[in-house]
Structures are given as structure tokens and as C-alpha cells.
């Protein structure tokens, strides 16, 4: 069964560069986001001119679930991989994330895009959850 979610569009009325600085401050941890326990960079690359930066992180989330469910599943935290592609020339940030935990049973993909249009920053989030992952490939 495939489920799709598309968030409402959010508009930020601040300069793109300021929003990106604020976004970067949440890594490796952020006290203002208690579910976000931490992250580590697993791959990083930058174009020769510094305009494009790709950072791949392994993120650790403390999802709310009953204690018994966490014990039965054998995990205390939910892990996902996140790839951020920042293009300073085009003033875009594309975020792709997918689950590492339970990857053999469920496949979760999230796509977020920050981009500038009409001097405002737009955020769009799309999420696809495929619980029949093994049968779909």
C-alpha cells in the first residue's frame, strides 16, 4: 500500500541565505527540536566554485512510541539518511530523506524543496510511504 502526503506550501519572507543559515544551525543537534537526537555527516562534497554543496547525514530520531513497542521492535531510535543539495547560484535547497530503520519492511521517502520565487522562500514537502516495499521492486 502506497500513501502519499504533500504539505501545505510555506512561505518565508526572509532572505534565502538567512533561512539557510538558520537551517544549518540544527545540525548536528538542536535543542529546539527534541525529536532530533543527533546526526553525523557520512558524505560531503562541494563544487570547485563552492556554489553547490551536497551533504549526506545519518540522522537519529527519538520517535514517540510506547515502551513495549520499542522493546518488541528492538530499537530505541529511528534512523534515516538525509541528502541535502544546496545550490547557492539557483538559491535552492533540495532535501531527500529515506528510512534506514525498518527498511526491509517499509520504505519512506521524503522530498523537501526550498526555493526563491517572487522574493519569498517557498517550502514544499512531499512524502511517500510504501509499506509493501518488498513486493513493489
Automatic annotation (TrEMBL):
Occurrences of domain PRELI/MSF1 (ranges): 3-137
A GO CC term assigned to this protein in UniProt: mitochondrial intermembrane space
InterPro entries: PRELI/MSF1_dom, Slowmo/Ups
PANTHER family listed in its UniProt record: MSF1/PX19 RELATED (PTHR11158)
Name by which UniProt lists this protein: PRELI/MSF1 domain-containing protein
Organism name: Tetranychus urticae
Amino acid at each position: 500500500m502506497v500513501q502519499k502526503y504533500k504539505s501545505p506550501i510555506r512561505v518565508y519572507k526572509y532572505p534565502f541565505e538567512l533561512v539557510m543559515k538558520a537551517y544549518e544551525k540544527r545540525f548536528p543537534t538542536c535543542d529546539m527540536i527534541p525529536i532530533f537526537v543527533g546526526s553525523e555527516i557520512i558524505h560531503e562534497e562541494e563544487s570547485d566554485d563552492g556554489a553547490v554543496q551536497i551533504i549526506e547525514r545519518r540522522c537519529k530520531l527519538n520517535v514517540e512510541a510506547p515502551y513495549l513497542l520499542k522493546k518488541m521492535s528492538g530499537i530505541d531510535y529511528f534512523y534515516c539518511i538525509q541528502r541535502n543539495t544546496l545550490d547557492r547560484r539557483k538559491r535552492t535547497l533540495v532535501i531527500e530523506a529515506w528510512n534506514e530503520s525498518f527498511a526491509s519492511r517499509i520504505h519512506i521517502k521524503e522530498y523537501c524543496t526550498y526555493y526563491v520565487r517572487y522574493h519569498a522562500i517557498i517550502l514544499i514537502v512531499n512524502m511517500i510511504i510504501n509499506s509493501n516495499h518488498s513486493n513493489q521492486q
